[in-house]
Design a protein that fits this description.
By secondary structure, the protein is α/β, with parallel strands linked by helices. The protein folds into three domains: 212 residues, NAD(P)-binding Rossmann-like Domain (Rossmann fold), CATH 3.40.50.720; 183 residues, Arc Repressor Mutant, subunit A; 111 residues, Ubiquitin-like 2 activating enzyme e1b. Chain:  B, domain 3 (Structural Genomics Hypothetical 15.5 Kd Protein In mrcA-pckA Intergenic Region, Chain A). The protein is built from 16 helices and 16 strands. Strands 3-2-1-4-5-6-9-10 form an eight-stranded mixed sheet, with helices on both faces. A six-stranded mixed sheet has the order 13-12-14-15-11-16, sandwiched between helices. Strands 7-8 form a two-stranded parallel sheet. A hairpin with a 4-residue loop joins strand 12 and strand 13. Helix 12 packs across helix 13. The C terminus is likely disordered. Pathway: Protein modification; protein sumoylation. GO terms for molecular function: ATP binding; metal ion binding; SUMO activating enzyme activity. This is SUMO-activating enzyme subunit. It comes from Pristionchus entomophagus. Keywords: ATP-binding, Metal-binding, Nucleotide-binding, Ubl conjugation pathway, Zinc.
């Protein structure tokens, strides 16, 4: 066997996980298949939107409405028809319970092609817990970076606080399935342009009425070939019913015909369009469906908020408006912008974050849409910060970053981890003529909640049923030997168990999920009696009852140091 055959066999034997099949993911899957990797698992929850087609080149118009992971997998298999390639996919959230400790442990390395900070944090934590190398790539316009993270050798994704102000378009989620407030903010800027700016087809904010996703709901499932004749007839009736429904008018046309009636525009955006979006039932199989918000039924306070500080006691810029206040801000902003628009010679307004009417309009729109999709609303100050820092995705940047990630993957597969470096892509060559700058990996942050060398325990529980009291008494005290536990949730720094008597008694009956714990969640635990610290990684097990738990692993610093020397 020659060296080529040996290298090919080495790559073929490496099992690879790729999370994300969007802009970077499409380029990356093509690369790793053509490079010789033969056992690949692809995960992505998103479906293909027409707006993806200009930069996600594995997708075509006939794929709109289908699973990104499914279509990308099929394209990857076609790229190596003569080779024994195994590519499997999951159209699912990376937070799903099935992607647990044992699932991650089976891979040689993980490729992160995500645009969502929460998901990237989660994958980072799972890779650090399982000691699986993670290659993470990201882009922001013409800028990009690749970081390979190896537990104990390099810093992890959470070792350094990321700049929250640099935001990119997260793809097709903007119009149909927002999951973060920034998605709602981007959408709201498009609404402004649709109503008051220069018309641009890319700024359309309504669900696509001719989109296959709306009219061919069954195409996204794997059960299409198993339908009975009765099922098909029922589906045809349902599709005819959808087609017979009156299609909502274009947002600009409707606004002009109504004389820019704020209440009518509001109900068009947040009631009519949402009802139509709900017809795309395949979108809501794994997601919380949106809830329409009629103008006359807006609540006076936000769900889950505290009334400890009154509105008068808070800075108006920092206070989060209630749904009713957002509705009133929307009404006033529409009226002001209508007058301004009528006073211009060309009838066109340009969005400016420093214009109060424009900014309040976008903030109100974004918050109402956030409430509809179950996302926590934000203050005017926070939205202004986000709205001024939105960067479009660039296909060539995605391709370059995917190429660098592939080189790193080949290095890891070849056992050359010591040669892997971080890479930064610049917008133009530096004084040395280099556009891609290699950098030595930074060492792990000793204070990092995720990867620092503390004792780390991975425990499987049912976060929906186990209470804080059970966690304290059964898991920490009885099983792990923590005498007087002080427990803090790592993401929010919220104390949920205190060794000080009576301080957290009111939280004892709360379930763990009440405090934000889910698959991959982290707790920071300190024993007040001894000063010992540990990290507890929480894995979800829906089949467990309130009192059942399983210690998956218990790694002490001394043990980890010995392993690293070996």
């Amino acid at each position: 066997m020659g060296w080529r055959e040996k290298e090919a066999a080495k790559l073929a034997g490496k099992k690879v996980l790729m999370v994300g099949a969007g802009g970077i993911g499409c380029e990356l899957l093509k690369n790793i298949v053509l490079a010789g990797f033969r056992d690949i698992h692809v995960i992505d929850l998103d479906t293909i939107d027409v707006s993806n087609l200009n930069r996600q080149f594995l997708f075509r118009r006939e794929h709109v409405g289908k699973s990104k992971a499914e279509v990308a997998t099929a394209a990857g298999l076609r790229m190596a028809p003569d080779a024994e390639v195994k590519i499997v996919f999951d159209h699912d959230s990376i937070f799903s319970e099935k992607f647990n400790y044992e699932f991650f442990k089976q891979f040689a390395f993980v490729l992160n092609a995500l645009d969502n900070k929460a998901a990237r944090n989660h994958v980072n934590r799972m890779c650090m817990a399982t000691r699986v190398p993670l290659i993470d790539g990201g882009t922001a316009g013409y800028l990009g970076q690749v970081h390979t993270m190896i537990r104990g050798s390099t810093e992890c994704y959470e070792c350094v606080l990321k700049d929250e102000n640099k935001k990119t378009f997260p793809g097709c989620t903007i119009r149909n399935t927002p999951s973060e407030h920034i998605h709602c903010t981007v959408w709201s800027k498009h609404v402004f342009n649709q109503l008051f700016g220069e018309l641009d087809i890319d700024d359309d904010v309504s669900p696509d009425m001719d989109d296959e996703e709306a009219n061919e709901k069954k195409k996204n499932g794997e059960e299409e070939g198993m339908e009975t004749e009765e099922d098909k007839k029922e589906e045809e009736k349902e599709e005819e019913s959808v087609k017979e429904k009156e299609k909502p008018k274009n947002t600009r046309v409707m606004a002009e015909e109504s004389g820019y009636d704020a209440e009518k525009i509001f109900n068009k955006l947040f009631v009519d369009d949402i009802h139509y979006l709900l017809l795309m039932t395949n979108l809501w199989k794994e997601r919380r469906p949106p809830v329409p918000q009629p103008f006359g039924e807006l609540a006076n306070d936000n769900p889950g908020t505290s009334a400890v500080r009154t509105a008068a006691q808070m800075d108006p810029l920092q206070r989060v408006w209630s749904p009713a206040e957002n509705g009133e801000e929307f009404r006033k902003a529409v009226e002001s912008l209508r007058v301004r628009k009528a006073a211009t010679s060309d009838g066109i307004l340009t969005w400016d974050k420093d214009n109060e009417d424009a900014m309040r309009f976008v903030a109100a729109c974004a918050n109402i849409r956030a409430v509809i999709f179950g996302i926590q609303p934000k203050s005017l100050f926070e939205i202004k910060s986000m709205a001024g820092n939105i960067i479009p995705a660039i296909a060539t940047t995605n391709a370059i970053i995917a190429g660098i990630m592939t080189v790193d993957a080949l290095m890891i597969a070849g056992g050359k981890m010591d040669k892997v470096v971080s890479s930064i892509l610049l917008t133009a060559p530096n004084w040395k003529g280099m556009a891609v700058i290699p950098q030595e990996h930074a060492k792990p942050n000793p204070s990092c909640y995720t990867c620092s060398s503390k004792r780390e325990v991975t425990v499987r529980v049912n976060v929906e049923r186990m209470t804080v009291e059970t966690l304290r008494d059964k898991v920490l005290i009885s099983s792990l030997g923590v005498g007087a536990p002080d427990v803090m949730e790592a993401t929010t720094n919220k104390v949920i168990v205190s060794s000080e008597e009576g301080e957290t008694d009111g939280l004892m009956d709360d379930t763990l999920s009440t405090h934000g714990l889910a698959m991959g969640g982290r707790l920071l635990v300190e024993d007040f009696d001894t000063g010992d610290e540990m990290r507890v990684v929480v894995l979800q097990a829906a089949a467990f009852d309130e009192f059942t738990f399983e210690i998956v692993s218990d790694e002490k610093p001394e043990k980890k140091e010995e392993e690293e020397k070996e």
